[in-house]
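Researcher: Go.
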Amino acid sequence: VQLQASGGGLVQAGGSLRLSCTASGRTVASNTMAWFRQLPGKEREFVAGIKWTTGDTYYADSVRGRFTISRYSVGQSIYLDMDNLKPEDTAVYYCAAEPIPSTAVVTSRYFYWGQGTLVTVSS
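Model: Structure:
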């Protein structure tokens, strides 16, 4: 499975961005995908996750109410709509697929990772 993330960029505080991630190579088996981010000097952290079959979503407290994760079944794509961005959202954002174990969502252990896409929020 290859994951291709895109959509990062520079935005002013209060602005919005949409990140996209598309899985290719084979069907994502466990049907759970997620977004993570890594702030400068910090460990990678969970941002949002979605179970493909049910559409159930999960969010970190720091982004709940501002970020929205969604899926598009054709092409196995997920999106992260980020609104009301803050300077502290500045990070490299990664998409991931197939958590370990497969029933998990909010975990740092995912089998597949995409390359990061940089989001910079200026104050």
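Model: The mean pLDDT is 92.
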